[in-house]
Amino acid sequence: MENGNKPTNTKRRRSSASEKAKEIEAINGIVSGRNVLITGGASGLGHAFMTHFLKHGANKIVILDIDAETGRRVEMSVEKSYGEKKVHFIHADVSNYEQMTVAFEKAKSLMKDINIVINNAGILDERRWEKEIAVNIGGMVCTALLAIKYLKEDLYGYGSTLVNVSQHIDIKCTAQLPVYTATKHAIIGLSQSLAATYPCENTGIRVITLCPGLTETALTVDSPNKLLSRVMKADFVKNLEQLSIQTPYVVAQGLMSILRIGESGSIWVVENGRSPYEVYVPNPSSLRRTYKNNITLVEPKVTTRGRPIREVCDNTRTGLMSCA
Ligand SMILES: NC(=O)c1ccc[n+]([C@@H]2O[C@H](COP(=O)([O-])OP(=O)(O)OC[C@H]3O[C@@H](n4cnc5c(N)ncnc54)[C@H](O)[C@@H]3O)[C@@H](O)[C@H]2O)c1
User: Fold this and answer.
1) Do 151 and 115 touch, CB atoms closer than 8 A?
2) Residue of 7, 268, 270 whose CA lies nearest to 161
3) Residue 1: pLDDT above 50?
4) If you measure from the C-alpha of residue 218 to the centroid of ligand 1, how many angstroms do you get, rounded to a whole number?
5) Which residue from 255, 260, 282 is spatially nearest to 166, judged by alpha carbons?
6) Which of 123, 141, 190, 243 to probe ligand 1 with, by most ligand atoms within 8 A of CB?
7) pLDDT tens digit string along 20-59?
């Protein structure tokens, strides 16, 4: 979850009204007329994303969720304010590939094209960690792969977009959430690999990672009762109490700005209710520790430090030689 550091003293300049108007106009340019699919869209962050897409003029939105009752209620309430057939609810479990294949087909037939996919559905339940892994990794992989298949090349020139929702990684604050944290780390790997495997220049698809900090949703409110052991609860609550919590509205607002400027492969944090900032995955050699007391580790006795991979792999099976 997010870190508890207090904001620094550096003064932030408030945007003027005309700058804000320009930003809204620019976001409308990206969102207006587009079709959006949001997993876990019935409540929490997913619901806030839906509201912002509507505000910025999205054409049609599909919210896909396992909670049928809330999903249908949202569909009906949007109908009252935005008219019929603006938001469709599809009942599906993201961790069930068959259900998701049917759901994407249905979404395509409802919206014709799918331009933006927000891969958001997730749970926090360390006691049912197999389920947590199935939804947070299995479900997100399933959604991401189907999204790549269905996102059509963008006719407007901005590229279709897949946003994978991870979390703001701060190891010390997630000490009591080992499995949840592992699943959220995995999503950064998934996003980075997909962005590299399907380069935006060739496919027109941007892959972006969103890392929200602690946000006021059912997931957070229930989290103290979802730990691996009751013994952890007191420490967990103490850690949580040191953090500030933001509203889903701020994260959704941040996502709109990210959609405007985020490049494929980029990773964005929205924390403490502030505007988004981009982070990068560091080069491991830049993270290398140096020891103060001159500890030197014994170098292994090998004649060659590395061997060409082609010498090791059976090229008749791997085809490595023919790729060279
Ligand atoms: N709340 C936070 O502090 C926070 C911080 C960082 C990241 N996140 C991530 O944001 C995402 C949304 O979380 P939230 O806080 O809005 O949670 P939430 O519990 O408020 O909403 C999650 C939504 O996903 C749906 N869902 C759950 N399992 C599903 C499944 N198997 N198939 C389809 N839908 C399913 C739920 O019914 C619900 O509508 C999650 O991936 C979460 O890990 C949350």
Assistant:
1) yes
2) 268
3) no
4) 8
5) 255
6) 123
7) 899 999 999 899 999 999 999 999 999 999 999 999 999 9
